Structure formats: structure tokens, C-alpha cells
Amino acid sequence: MKPTEIRDENGLAAFLDTMDLRLKELGHRKGLAHFHQLLGEPHEDLTRLNTEFVDLLLTDENDRIVDYWKTGISDSRLNRRLKLFADTILSSRIGNDPELFEISHPIEQKIISFQPEMGGKIISRSEQGKILESEPDRSRRRTAYYAGKALDERIEFDVVRLFEKRNELAVKLGYPDYVALGLKLQEIDENELRELFEQVKTSTEDIWTQTCRRIVRDMGIDAIEPWDLSYYIHTVLKSPAPERFPKKDIIPTFKAELKKAGGDLEKLPIRVIERDIPYGGLCMTIEFGKDIRILANPRDGLQWYDAVFHEFGHAIHGSLLDTSSYIVAGGDPSFFWEGVAGMYERIVHEPSFLKGTFGLDDDQIDQIRHQTRLSRILWFRRIAVSCLLEWAVYRGETDPRGLLAELTKEYLGLSVPDDTGWAGNTLYTTHPLYSQNYLLMDVMALHTIEAIREKFGAYPGPDLFEFVNMYYVKPGGWIPWREKIRSATGKDLTADALGRYLSA
Ligand SMILES: [Zn+2]
């Protein structure tokens, strides 16, 4: 049946205009509420906001409109808008489900208020991370590791319920499980991803095995424990001290780099707020094009330049995309957003940057590049573990701890105690099926960087900002991501460039 009030394509466009305005207003309020929630400040009631989303999106009338107009629209932009509106409704069926929200919201609050404790003393997450990276006393590192794991126990029961609920909703919508629906909404193919995990593992097997042998030898230990890896990479491996990369210079350095790349940070609606948050950094879009806030809690050290440059990448994306339609503006899949952030993050690893900004010599640059590559390999292998475990739990795995131990043995070559918790991986709650996007980030960024080098002779260079904006940022969701990558780089996206980086 034709929805009565919409007679033609103009009518449909007018309907989507209304939806755009209302979603934009709700999105703005939700962004603010989340921001203040993270900061522990008064904020609008998220349960009520959630209900407003449901009332707006999940109506029979919307379903009828989408269903009626999903074929035969002559205007391709209108067609794209409607497709993204349909996706918004579909993800809202899970993302805004009131019963699910009742489970997830309290977990999120537990995550936000969680504070690790060592020897009866509360420490910040940032201190905890610092101990794992630089504390020579192995038993103190072990204590810091378990201090973080306390969160697992506190939320595991609820996280399992959350997984069950998401699954139940996905099945109700006609999907075999939540993994199938969640990956589809992100335009990711599970089999391709499994192949990518395998490719990462195979292409880094030699270097990883050697590294594990070296860790045991250099640290004089019998076997690697989870609290040894970060310490080895950041402290045992020879590299310039973290103080060479002072925290206070991170933002001015980004500003200077952006200028060299053709952009002006002063002209963008971006603010940075320092807080101890449960993530390395977080970019919050309060309003596309108008109000973007970065939350971060950096310390001295190059990896914090990496983290903050990454968040600036997101912030530039959120600042400069086409805002003519709210639904379309946010229409790129998450990994594409990560890929754009990666285009700025990877500046930090470039020899020209390390030399020019910190005056490092060739030996130091080699040390950093080796250290960064090992961190990346470790990270990618951890991502594989995290995803495979997450999928298995959605598919009914009854012993997640046992599987975590198995996967950790397979991908990292180390044993974790059987009682090691898994539920404290906060992404499982706040960003389900997300970890792979950090691997896909490098797939996309390295693919694009190779193309930039061919075209302009250098990365980073004076054309970087304009190039990324023109091809990736400005079109927002109007152009599907595959086409954007093809027109920017002249090629379809493959993991070849990542492969070359990992096995270099
Ligand atoms: Zn990111």
C-alpha cells in the first residue's frame, strides 16, 4: 500500500527532510548527554532520549514508506538517502531497543565509574597503563594487570545477558545471529575478515615467533605472561625515552603538522578536553560541522601523539563533511571513519616527522619503527582474538574463558590463566563488533598512503588535507565507500599495502 501522505519523489524528499531535522536534534541532545555522562556531570536522561528515538524511527508508517519506495526511485541521491534511512531504522531496532537499553545502560555506567585498585589504593587508568608499560617489578605489573581485570567479574553476568538480548533481536529480524546483522550493517564480510586475520597471522608468524623468543631471553623469564608484552615493547626494547615526546607539545605539534598538510586547526570547530576516560582517546560529535569534542588523557610518549592525532582525524572528518542531510552525513561505515583517522595517525610514524619534530637520528628512527611495527603486530593479533571470541559468544560459546585462553595461545603464543575474564573489553558493551575496524583502519590508510606517495611523491605533504577531504570526508555518505576509495586511489581496496608494511 502506498503511504498516503507521500505522493511523489518530492514528497519523499520532504519527508526525509523532516526526519533529518528531528534526528539531528535528537543526535545533538544524545551527544551532549553522553559527553556529560562520561565526565560525570549532570545530563539529560538517556532512557527518555532512547524512547524518543524509538518513537521517531520505529513506526509502522516508516516501514511502509521504506518498503514502498525502496525500488523505482529515479533520483539517485534520493535513493541513497532512503537506503541510509532504512539502515538507520534497522540499526535502531537493536541500538535503541528499550529492553536492551535497560541491560546495557547500567553496564556502561559501571564501566565509566570503574577505578582500578592496587594494594587498596585507587589508581587512574592512565597510571595503570603506565605501570604495565614501564614498571620493572614484574609482580607489580601483574597486580596492575589484575587490577584492570576486576571489571570483568563485575560486569560479566550482565554482558552475557546483553549478548543474548542482541542475538534474540537479530533473530527476530530474520538474521541467523547478531554477528550476521551487525557486520552487514557495517558493510563487512565475515569471510573476508577471517581471511584477513589469517593473512596477518601468516605474514607476521616469523617476526612474532622471534620476538617471543627474544622476550624470554632478554627479560630472563621462563614464559611470557600477559603483563610482560607492553613492558617489553615500551621499556625493554631500546628506544628514545617517553620524555622525548612531551605531552604538552602534542596539540601544538598536530596544529603545525596540519598546517604543513594544508589545513588550519583554528578554523575547525574542535575542542580537546583532558580526562581519565576508559579509552585511549575519544572523539565525540556533538553536532556535525559545528561542535566536535575530543576527550583524551595523554601522557609523555610517542604513542600518545599517535592516539591524539587519530582523534583529530575523526574530528576533522566530523567537522568538514557535507551536512545537508544528517542521515547521509553519518552514512559511512565505522571502519571508514577509522581509516580517515588513520590517515592522520600514521603521520606520527613517518621518518620525516620524527626527524623534523623531535630531532631524532637514523638509529632512533629505526628503533621507533621497529617498536611501532611490533606494537601493531601485537595489536592486530589481539584484534583477531577479540573478534573471534566475541563472535563465538554470540554463537553460543559456553566457555568464553577457555576459548580466550585457546585463542591467546594461538595468536599471541602465550598462556593466560584459565580464569582470565573477558567481559571487561568495553567495546563489547559500547561498540559491539567493532575491534576489527582498527585493523581495517590500517588496511585503508596504508592503501591510500601508497596512492598518495605515487601521486604527490610524499606522505605527509602539502596536499594531504585537501586530498583526504575531497575524496573521503566531504562527500559524507553520499558516495559509497568502495567508490570513494576507488576514485581516490585508482584501485579497489585490498590488504596488499598492509601486507607489505607487516612483512617489510
Ligand atoms: Zn578511532
Describe what you observe in this structure.
- The protein is mostly helical and 504 residues long.
- It folds into three domains: 9-96; 114-156 and 191-241 and 365-430, no CATH class; 243-360 and 435-502, Orthogonal Bundle (Neurolysin, domain 3), CATH 1.10.1370.30.
- 65% of the residues lie in helices and 4% in strands.
- The longest helix has 35 residues, at 138-172.
- The radius of gyration is 23 Å and the shape is globular.
- The protein starts with 8 loop residues before the first helix and ends with a helix.
- Zinc ion is lined by residues 310, 314, 338, 341.
Radius of gyration: 23 Å
CATH architecture of the largest domain: Orthogonal Bundle
* Structure ligands: zinc ion
Oligomer: single chain
Number of domains: 3
Distance between the termini: 59 Å
Order of helices and strands: HHHHHEEHHHHHHHEEEHHHHHHHHHHH
Main pleated sheet = 3 strands, mixed
- Into which percentage range does the β-strand content fall? under 5%
Number of strands: 5
Number of helices: 23
From the spread of the alpha carbons, the general shape counts as: globular
